[in-house]
Write a structure and sequence with these properties.
- By secondary structure, the protein is an all-alpha fold.
- It is built from 22 helices and two strands.
- Strands 1-2 form a two-stranded antiparallel sheet.
- Helix 2 runs parallel beside helix 6.
Length: 507
Amino acid sequence: MMAASLTLSPFMMSVSQFYLLAVWLFLGDPVNVKLQRFAHNRIALVLVSLYALHLIGLAYTSDFSYAFKDLRVKLPLVTFPLILSSTHPLEKRYADLLLWIYVVSVLAATGHSYVTYLQHNYDDVREIAHHISHIRLCLNIVLCIGILCSFLFSRTTLWWLKALCMPLLVWFVYQLYIFESISGYAAFVGVAFASLLYLYFTKVKSRTWKMALILALVVLPIASGFMLYRIVNPMIAITPVDLDSLEKKTAQGNDYWHDTIHFPVESGHYVGLYFCRDEMREAWNLRSTLDYDGNTLNGENLEATLARYLTSKDLRKDAAGMAELNEQDIHNVEQGVANYVNWTHPGVYARLAETLFEYGQYRRSNNPNGGSLSQRLEYTKASWHLIKQHPLFGVGTGDIPNAYMTAYDEIQSPLWPQFRHKAHNQYLSITVGFGIIGLVWFLTVLFYPFLSSKQNRTYLYTLFLVILLISMLPEDTIESQAGVSFYAFFNSLFIFAFKKRAERPNT
């Protein structure tokens, strides 16, 4: 139930935890025996201590309403280590079955999202994730990719299951591509790198193959950096313009307006040059039912979106430029697509283009509102402000939201009230709440299981840890039900519920 609901039903996440707790209480060994196992398991105690950190934070908090809500959301930090560390590990066939149930559930979630994607029934491609956020779904997709690779690496996997893994891998990589999640892309690169290291140290014995893997480990980051450079460089390389020789009249004899102060840039061209509002309005209203002076279907200013779209195609903002747009271009603008490469090159290219434009606007106007990256920079500023004020112990479990609201006012942030959120970085969130001492405690909980026992350094747990550590840089991974359930469930599953190789004498 838990494996299936992680990407399909937040409600069933809660139900499955209560069901597991009921099974733990009333079936199998007596409860006192299970509690003794738990009490003698150092790793389980370390994992549960993260919840204890939040309980300690109650001692110096004032907003107990938020504190108790936060403690309720984070109950998986206790339930999964307690239950899975004190019960017997799964047989391999049941462990494999559990992983396949999870893969099928993620397949169903991505299938549902892809239907919406094909229907274009969304304002932002990130909205096609129906049951959990697109970032959480991408983390699950990357973990599925790792699980499928583990089946391919395993000698015990049946040949027809290995054959099934290949199209599933292609499907999940493609889904990751269309979601345009930078954190998902980063986690995928991390998993690829970790997989190569795993093959080098555990599977490959031939010197030739080891050399090939070393070459791949060197080439992968270089190739990723080169590809990133090839994508980003044309976006930031601005076409030079002689401002003194700008034409003043359109082909129809109307006046151009040139913005020579703000210089917003789209795909290397200045958006504010060669702008004739009257010709754009007339040409647009003849071709679209949406009012030029209104908004796009996703709520963005239509004139600004149209101007950016024309600039991305290196067209002037006048009747001649409008005549170069085809029906697909008009439809794209109506949908709120501000750059034509977002349509012709979706995925990482489109996401980077949008991020670079947002950052450029933020640098020029100091207006972070509506931009994912620029808002995160403001979140970071507010976080550091709070950390400087409460360096050792933080603000406490329940005072984090109120502390952020005060911090935004103190630093005079231009963020609008509806965009004033927490850090969107798990490491900063922990430090704000519990100080540097809490951060050290948190990092100990994350790394102790991996470093304390060689048996825990399995392929799947290594990949899971890589995904988790990367995900916590752009997101508060364990601050939501989907995120904390993902962490607590798989962390305990890979450590306690899967039999280690030393416990399988017949393997």
